[in-house]
Amino acid sequence: MRPRRLSIAALALAVAAPAWAQVPLTPARPDPNDPDSVIVEELVVTARLPGPAWWTVSNGTSTVYVLGSPSLAPKKMAWDRTVFDRRLAGASQVILPYQDVHVTFAGSLGAAFNYMRLKGGGPFEATLDPQTRARFVAAREKLGQPARRYDTRNALAAGILLATDYRDRNALTTTDPAKLVKLLAQRARVPVAQKAYSIGPLMGEMIRTPPAAARTCFDEVLAQAEAGPAVTLAAARAWAGGDVRGALGNERTLERCFAVVPGAAAFDARVKADEAAEIAQALKKPGHALAVVPLRPLLAQGGVLDQLRAKGFTVTTPGQEAD
């Protein structure tokens, strides 16, 4: 099964403030459904070296240089690779965030069934009140999409699909710069480590997402589509310049939509633990390695760097780097 246009869980992993809001590092009321809502503030500094910010994890003899990647950025965005190129040379490996999600053979029939339950029932706009319907119709027409494109009664499915269309139309991606890093590592013959996960079980859980949470997702995505990509573009420029706080202001509609799905918290915890474990394993080898981790999972309380510090590793911030 490979439905390009409504592979709901895969799009959600691509994973509720309006796009224009600057989310504080420590919200007054942290969202219990958002595992990345609270950031470890002492890790948020402006990089001293040119280009994007890097954090360093060390056990005293080996080092892993960790590049925090944006959650969303323009496709093929240019960035200063001076530091990256220097660190890639001689690296034992490059650890990348997951992105090749898959459905196992054993779960493929169940995933297909759940997909069909999410898709169908007539145009989603028929379920909306007149005011919201007018906004949604204007948004989808601006994106060049017909009503039949959103053939679902599920608000979460409609929201995720709208977010995907909005991102495609504005040439935004969740996979850069990791795709470029992977390509450059392969060209340099540096081994690449990148985990894949079965998402079949989560597709079923998406159907059981509470209607209120599903509708909140749709409303926030609609607001994002109306607002446009200005915040994302500004955050991408901040990221490229090593401004971590500015980069954290990126929009996160899909990530927050995914966070309300039953089972998502456990999945998120597993991914972060796996990423931390991969870095810890790399530190057992002499020399140095590179890792790419999305910014918020990297810097959140209970995130990858928080877990590594708890294990006794030394974490150096971008503001402390000397070379």
Short description:
This protein has 323 residues and is α/β, with parallel strands linked by helices. It has helices spanning 8-13, 82-88, 108-118, 130-142, 155-169, 178-187, 200-207, 211-227, 230-240, 244-247, 253-259, 264-282, 295-299, 304-310, and strands at 54-58, 62-69, 73-74, 94-95, 172-173, 192-193, 287-294, 314-316.
> Unreliable stretches, pLDDT < 50, 5 or more residues?
1-23, 102-106
Mean pLDDT: 85
Strand order of the main beta sheet, please?
A: 6-4-7-2-1-8
Characterize the quaternary organization of these chains. Answer: single chain
Number of domains: 1
Beta-strand percent range: 5-15%
Give the distance, in angstroms, between the N- and C-terminal Cα atoms: 48 Å
Strands, total number: 8
- Helical amount: 40-55%
Rg of Cα set: 20 Å
Largest sheet: 6 strands, mixed
* Number of DSSP helical runs: 14
Structural class given helices, strands, pairing? alpha/beta
String of helices and strands: HEEEHEHHHEHEHHHHHHEHHE
